[in-house]
Hints:
The complex is a heterodimer of chains A (372) and B (403). Chain A has ten helices and 19 strands. With 372 residues, chain A is of the alpha/beta class. Chain A has two domains: 2-144, Glucose Oxidase, domain 1, CATH 3.50.30.20; 156-371, Class I glutamine amidotransferase (GATase) domain (Rossmann fold, 3-Layer(aba) Sandwich), CATH 3.40.50.880. The longest helix of chain A is centred in the C-terminal third of the chain and has 14 residues, at 358-371. Chain B has helices at 25-39, 71-88, 101-113, 116-119, 129-136, 138-147, 161-171, 194-207, 267-284, 315-324, 328-336, 399-402, and strands spanning 7-13, 43-47, 63-65, 92-96, 122-124, 155-158, 175-179, 189-191, 213-217, 223-231, 237-245, 258-260, 289-297, 304-310, 363-369, 390-396. In chain B, the strands form three sheets. A seven-stranded antiparallel sheet of chain B has the order 14-13-10-11-12-15-16, sandwiched between helices. In chain B, strands 3-2-1-4-5 form a five-stranded parallel sheet, with helices on both faces. A four-stranded antiparallel sheet of chain B has the order 6-9-7-8, with helices on one face. The chains are: A alpha/beta (372), B alpha+beta (403). Chains A and B meet through helix 3 and strand 15 of A and helix 9 of B.
Amino acid sequence: MQAVLALEDGKIFRGEGFGAKGECYGEVVFNTSLTGYQEIFTDPSYAGQIVVLTNPEIGNYGTNFEDNEASHPYIEGLVVREFSRISSNWRSQQVTDEYLDRFRVPVISEIDTRALVRHLRTKGVMRGVISSMDTSVEILIAKTRSIPKMDGTDLAKIVTTRHRYDWTAGSQFQPVPVIDGQPGRHVVAYDFGIKQNILRMLVDAGCRVTVVPAMTSAEDVLRMAPDGVFLSNGPGDPEPCNYAQENIRGLMGRVPVFGICLGHQLIGLALHGKTYKLKFGHHGGNHPVKQMESGKIEITAHNHNFAVAPDSLKDSEVMNTHIDLNDGTLEGLRHRSMPLFSVQYHPEASPGPHDSHYLFHDFMKMMKEWKN
Amino acid sequence: MPRRKDISKILIIGSGPIVIGQSAEFDYSGTQACKALRNEGYEVVLCNSNPATIMTDPEMADRTYIEPLTSAYLEEIIHREVEMMEVRSRGKFALLPTVGGQTALNLAVELSDSGVLEKYNVELIGAQLPAIKMAEDRLLFKDAMLKIGLDVPRSALVNNLKDGLEFSAKIGFPVIIRPSFTLGGTGGGIAYNREELLEIVARGLDLSPVHEVLIEESVLGWKEYELEVMRDIADNVIIVCSIENFDPMGVHTGDSITVAPAQTLSDREYQHMRDAAMRVIREIGVETGGSNIQFDVNPDTGHMVVIEMNPRVSRSSALASKATGFPIAKIAAMLAVGYRLDEIQNDITRKTPACFEPTIDYVVVKIPKWQFEKFPGADETLGPQMKSVGEAMAIGRTFRKLS
């Protein structure tokens, strides 16, 4: 099946289409991870985005029931160089092709992803469309320009859970021992598009987790008397999420708070800092991040288009704890007087290296100290 | 941390003659290390018996000795070099044994055991003696792996047929049988069933001077992977590249078609292996430099075992270097003299640090070359002993394009 990828600046790529015949729209971003395509498909932070994978061989190890980050894929469409319909892996339960087709996610392969990524790196991320219909490219390009831009769009409130629920599953693959026999800490996790591995890691660290919708008020959360509050990752621009920033202000200093990715950006904004959009974002599993205090380097998984401007935060209040060594982006902060810290990257990995798992233990420690 | 200023002179041992089983890759790594260390202002002394190498070109080192690679000759070289140093009386003399293959590593162990290094006050850099020995000694290595919670192929020493049968029943056929203390492993073999086991164990017990054989779980047919790991003095660890063997266990890596990066591991499995590799390099205690760690994975169950670790630049490091553009031997040399990974520049971007894990948008395949026509009568069956005489590497956008 012939398919076409059209970008809003008029650039066209033609390739082979898989999955449902149709069209999908979104912001076109690329991810450089060598492993973990299924986790990428199902990461809610990719809502509204067409994902280009730079690893040219996708599908080789199939898909399985364990590697999902949500109950279904969130990417709008997938762009790859070579799409394998054969899998070689003992955990594979469904070939990648059938898996994506089941969820009606369009795939375009045989694309010169290297040329596409270079284009996006030079021109910046932009809107695009994958189509396997016979629509003329002029119409497709015009359509891409009519879809809403990611900047200024609150996607968290669309992907968040509608109802509060408890999460109890840990990771089965690598059991992490419960720390010094602590009774479970109760953590309320805000879902702005939460990845399930964060929940699994919290459970592994010894937490009882209640997941709440993005709009839940600070009062409602405090009424649950949690030991700590977690602010999740999520898609889109943090700026329009005023409600979340207000709620964070209501929680800061009253309960230990830990944020990841969008949660980190929302904390930045709640502290009256500023966020900005990166030219082509950080999406990959090999970013060196330096812990400013110890000088130690972690190899980390990133997935963000926005970042907190480091000089927008008051040095008297906030400490910059982590910096990306590739481009100096602020990757982590900690409040000097309140129990509050966050990172821009993904310590829960999945996909990505496990170097930053210690942050979940830091959160446990913070909750313990606060309690005492 | 800047480079070590207390060292002034560094001896690099090459890998000697090119023989089947040890390819020419160590010329590539040795040359990189010589260049890097000279560039850092160290006086570099090189010893290699093979003049048909790039590393022995006159401009590569301050002094090059083309002498046999034996501890006696090396002692003589060290003696001479130390005398020359005393005249000028400067810093320390160091030995970097990790870029000349197993030959160089073995010589370093010999020189250390015989007290030569101590006598002339030569410091081993790149890998310390306990780490080299732990990686080398099967039993020490096995214990170290079990201590950090990693599996190795199960094995047991037995001295009678009954125990042999019992153990084999426990781990399942096939099993590998290795008689203790026989020359070149004489009398060993693979048993696929009870009858073969009885025959080989009986023969092995007979041949073994201590009447003992090792029975080991066979990993024949398992998926075979290698990770190239680097560690700096500040304990930062990175994985440069993963390699997957197209031919399963049972065929020597040097005779296997290999693919980089690994193609059939999901992120969970890859990260599990990456975590394991980090634990291995830390437990074995390679403080600075590169190591190569081999893992086998049961294709039906995913059960992962550690097979071995080379605490040095290896055959696969050369492939990983070329595949990713990450100059492993050069960086290993710089780490050995005290740099941290984040202080070294990434040669490709020239803007970002070398402390990262290369990600590539292409596939690399290495295919070995055999020349059995030159060796009439040689057994052409591929097995655990390397038989190829060379190899070709190709880079392409997809695996299909390369094959």
